[in-house]
Design a protein that fits this description.
Elements (H helix, E strand, L loop, with lengths): L7 E3 L5 E3 L7 E7 L8 H12 L4 E7 L11 H12 L18 H9 L14 E4 L5 E5 L9 H8 L2
Parallel strand pairs: 3-4
Antiparallel strand pairs: 1-2, 3-5, 5-6
Length: about 160
């Protein structure tokens, strides 16, 4: 059985990143989009990241264009939206697919471990997965669940 820390993904800058780099950290994986009604959640995600990074939280953003064509741009446009519009400083990765045959291995693993209400499918952008310091997926949050509403789960997991 695959473990979260055995997976890799390509950063927005084109570099391969091992999820093992985040061993010992609390990880929040989010499929993101720049032109979505939930896009303002970038600000809340950044606030959580800045507030709890010293205690071991890292947020990982994975742009996805599978829902309403809401992430149509390339790497530069995604970076500009994230950094200029929302001040995102947490790690961002290349655009991925989160459903279907080409599902990225990170999301294939997370959906298997935390299937959610759609039997393993991701419903929309800004679905969030909280992964413990040991790499074990802890909780899945719906797109409409704002970063502010998951703060208590983050605090609880950091105290483990």
């Amino acid at each position: 059985m695959t473990h979260f820390h055995q997976l890799t993904a390509t950063s927005l800058r084109g570099l391969p990143i091992s999820m093992a780099d985040y061993a010992g950290k609390l990880v929040l994986v989010v499929n993101t989009a720049s032109h979505c009604g939930f896009t303002p959640q970038y600000a809340g995600l950044e606030a959580l990241y800045k507030k709890y990074a010293p205690q071991g939280l890292v947020v990982l953003g994975f742009p996805c264009n599978q829902f309403g064509n809401q992430e149509p741009g390339g790497t530069e446009e995604i970076a500009q939206t994230c950094h200029i519009n929302y001040g995102v400083s947490f790690p961002m990765f290349e655009k991925v697919e989160v459903n279907g045959a080409a599902t990225h291995p990170v999301f294939r693993y997370l959906k298997h471990e935390l299937p959610g209400v759609l039997g393993g499918r991701i419903k929309w952008n800004f679905t969030k997965f909280l992964i413990g310091r040991d790499g074990k997926p802890l909780k899945r949050f719906a797109p409409f669940t704002t970063p502010e509403k998951i703060e208590s789960a983050i605090i609880a997991a950091l105290e483990i």
